[in-house]
Specification:
alpha/beta; 17 strands; globular
């Protein structure tokens, strides 16, 4: 048998047992896919993208953007029942001989098995572990943020919020020839982690001003307000947080108009306009996997447990708990034969 994780109601998720899929099965006339192209991936690990998945778990996806915010391979519809997720690693164990035994990353939900085509997954470089490969989604989002309003040589850049996405973006940006890169974070333990990675981590009060670009990833209105304050005249705030159905107050009365600031949205569902004509989403994900050769990404994995723990974990991450405060990326391992 196989297993799929479903959010069945508000804050209610559970694993559902289903028949084990097989690559040789007819996918049906509506799929438009030749059965000979299909291959089965046996999941070895998946990860929770805390910000987005807790919004799904608590039913906070606005109906008017539900279609736009659907994961590439989700089942069901928002708010529920829905089977959601987009960070999965596994091994191809059925399908074309050229793929059999290949470790792959895919934007796939929390399932023990997946039927996919070669276009749905990406081979993982040999030197990258399964757990680190799960961070390809975070690296891809960070890359998309940096493509949205690309920093220039000698720029002053601040990243506000050191969750999984903010930290991944900071690791990517640290390779650029910037004059200043600061990560602004309220959590002292997280600032210590950032410092250990060779990054400059500061409290909001100590943040440098006159930034060319401020990237906001904290998911809170206070972080966005601070981004507007520290961005220099005619500078740009890249808003990479998704608030779901929350309506944050945006401080537009002081800095925004008087200093001619720009606020631009970054959302990983589309390649930014400046790169869209020359880069596909597959190109972007391949670049993200290459970026994971940076060993520092391992520090983003702050917890590991068995796949059966996901219902409990989602409740913990969706609440004001020590687990939620400490989590950047939590990994779920799937035992052989599950």
């Amino acid at each position: 048998m196989a297993w799929q994780y479903w959010t069945e109601a508000h804050r209610q998720g559970r694993w559902t047992e289903v028949s084990t899929p097989h690559a040789g099965a007819d996918p049906g006339t509506e799929s438009g896919v030749d059965a000979g192209q299909m291959m089965r991936v046996r999941t070895t690990s998946s990860a929770v993208s805390k910000g987005t998945e807790t919004l799904v778990h608590t039913g906070r996806v606005p109906p008017r953007v539900a279609d736009l915010m659907a994961a590439p391979h989700q089942m069901g519809d928002f708010p529920h029942p829905v089977s959601y997720g987009y960070l999965a690693v596994g091994v191809v164990d059925e399908g074309p001989a050229a793929w059999t035994g290949t470790r792959v990353f895919g934007l796939l939900p929390h399932h023990s098995h997946h039927l996919v085509t070669p276009d749905d997954v990406h081979p993982i470089p040999e030197s990258i572990s399964d757990h680190r490969a799960l961070l390809a989604g975070a690296a891809e989002t960070g890359l998309n943020i940096l493509w949205q309003s690309p920093p220039h040589y000698g720029d002053r850049v601040a990243i506000i919020g050191a969750g999984m996405i903010g930290t991944a973006t900071a690791l990517l940006a640290s390779h650029l020839p910037l004059d200043r890169l600061e990560i602004i974070e309220t959590n002292p333990e997280r600032r210590t982690l950032l410092t250990s990675l060779g990054l400059t981590a500061l409290t909001p009060e100590d943040a440098g001003d006159d930034c060319d670009i401020a990237i906001h990833t904290s998911g809170g209105e206070g972080g966005l307000a601070r981004a507007l304050e520290i961005t220099g005249d005619d500078g740009t705030v890249v808003e990479a947080s998704w608030y779901g159905d929350t309506e944050p107050r945006v401080a537009l009365g002081a800095d925004f108009h008087a200093r001619r600031l720009s606020i631009v949205a970054s959302q990983v569902g589309r390649v930014p306009a400046g790169h869209r004509a020359r880069r596909t989403r597959s190109d972007r994900l391949r670049a993200a996997l290459t970026a994971l050769h940076d060993d520092r990404f391992d520090a983003l994995i702050t917890g590991v447990s068995g796949w059966q723990d996901l219902p409990w974990l989602m409740d913990e991450l969706s609440s004001d708990t020590a687990t939620a405060a400490a989590t950047l990326c939590h990994v779920l391992d799937y035992e052989e034969g599950s």
